[in-house]
């Protein structure tokens, strides 16, 4: 997919993340460990798998039928209670795929952008579900290629039932959107190294937003409660990464790991909040040994500010580039 190869590969290099996270992993003896539930995940191959919450065992669940490209943009994957939504860009066409969790079937249709969306090769950079309005928010970049540098993004609203796209005049100066979260009517879009934008989806406005009175960007963001979100961000030195708590009532953030730094995590897509266990969760690398990396899920308890790793196990190669979209039995 040109979007991933040309643009996101450069982003990964810039952020010093490992974008080649595939390795064989032996299955450990999990007979004595029982899972209470599974995390439902989507990886960059478009596979839908599940991970045991205690064993870390990855097992196949399903897949998106009809995908053409070999990789998908995890920034453009989101979900609700019943469905998982995925955007594929391939050979100049943008398709919306909808996976039904109950029937395990996939529907898809090519999207037609409004005439107001201009650019040499526009494509959807990120996708967010609004459960209150039952609509998808897509942020479209005017040019998926890195040369010339894209400077314009557009907000569109996508009806998942009709596949119609509505543009209400919101555009802003952001090269791409690789992490978003929705708080009420406000959609926050971020790209490391650039300003975070606050987009009012009701009044159709967009503006740069400062946190702690300075430029701030995030990845793997997820809303915990109204006006409170958790994310990965950079420490003051601009290189080391940490978990941060965002307070939207006064536009501040707090470094929750002031004495620690995180190992690399793929930057693309959403974080996940397990509200029943008060945990902010995302995929990461527990040990970044080049020959034998240990892939894991990091579980951060938002009430105690402590965390633990769940090492991943599989009877085949592990694609560690994935996002968590739900919990299932």
Question: What can you see in these coordinates?
Answer:
Keywords: Signal. Residues 1-28 form the signal peptide. The chain is mainly β. It has a single domain (2-26, 35-328), classed as Neuraminidase (6 Propeller). It is 4% helix and 47% strand. The chain has one helix spanning 2-14; strands at residues 22-24, 38-43, 47-52, 58-63, 77-79, 83-90, 93-100, 105-110, 123-130, 135-141, 153-158, 165-172, 179-183, 186-190, 196-200, 205-209, 219-225, 228-234, 241-247, 252-255, 272-274, 279-287, 294-301, 306-311, 317-319, 322-328. The strands form seven sheets. A four-stranded antiparallel sheet has the order 4-3-2-26, with no helix packed on it. A four-stranded antiparallel sheet has the order 5-6-7-8, with no helix packed on it. A four-stranded antiparallel sheet has the order 9-10-11-12, with no helix packed on it. The radius of gyration is 19 Å and the shape is globular. The model is unreliable at 1-7 and 9-28 (pLDDT under 50).
């Amino acid at each position: 997919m040109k979007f991933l190869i040309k643009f996101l590969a450069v982003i990964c290099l810039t952020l010093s993340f490992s974008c080649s996270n595939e390795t064989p992993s032996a299955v450990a003896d999990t007979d004595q460990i029982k899972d209470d539930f599974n995390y439902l995940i989507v990886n960059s191959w478009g596979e839908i798998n599940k991970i045991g919450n205690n064993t870390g065992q990855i097992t196949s669940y399903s897949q998106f039928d009809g995908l053409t490209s070999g990789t998908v943009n995890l920034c453009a994957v989101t979900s609700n209670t019943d469905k998982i939504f995925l955007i594929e860009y391939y050979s100049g066409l943008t398709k919306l795929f909808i996976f039904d969790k109950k029937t395990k079937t996939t529907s898809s249709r090519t999207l037609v952008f409004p005439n107001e969306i201009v650019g040499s090769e526009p494509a959807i950079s990120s996708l967010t579900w609004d459960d209150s309005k039952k609509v998808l928010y897509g942020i479209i970049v005017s040019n998926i290629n890195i040369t010339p540098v894209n400077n314009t993004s557009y907000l569109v609203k996508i009806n998942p039932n009709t596949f119609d796209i509505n543009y209400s005049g919101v555009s802003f100066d952001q090269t791409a959107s690789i992490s978003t979260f929705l708080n009420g009517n406000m959609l926050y879009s971020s790209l490391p190294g650039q300003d975070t934008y606050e987009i009012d989806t009701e009044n159709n406005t967009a503006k740069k937003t400062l946190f702690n009175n300075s430029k701030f960007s995030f990845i793997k963001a997820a809303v915990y409660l109204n006006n409170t979100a958790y994310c990965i961000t950079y420490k003051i030195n601009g290189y080391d990464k940490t978990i941060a708590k965002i307070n939207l009532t006064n536009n501040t953030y707090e470094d929750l790991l002031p004495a620690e730094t995180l190992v690399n995590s793929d930057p693309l897509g959403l974080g996940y909040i397990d509200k029943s266990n008060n945990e902010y969760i995302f995929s990461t690398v527990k040990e970044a040994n080049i020959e034998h990396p240990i892939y894991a899920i990091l579980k951060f308890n938002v009430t105690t500010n402590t965390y633990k790793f769940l090492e991943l196990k599989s009877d085949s190669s592990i694609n560690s580039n994935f996002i968590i979209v739900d919990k299932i039995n």
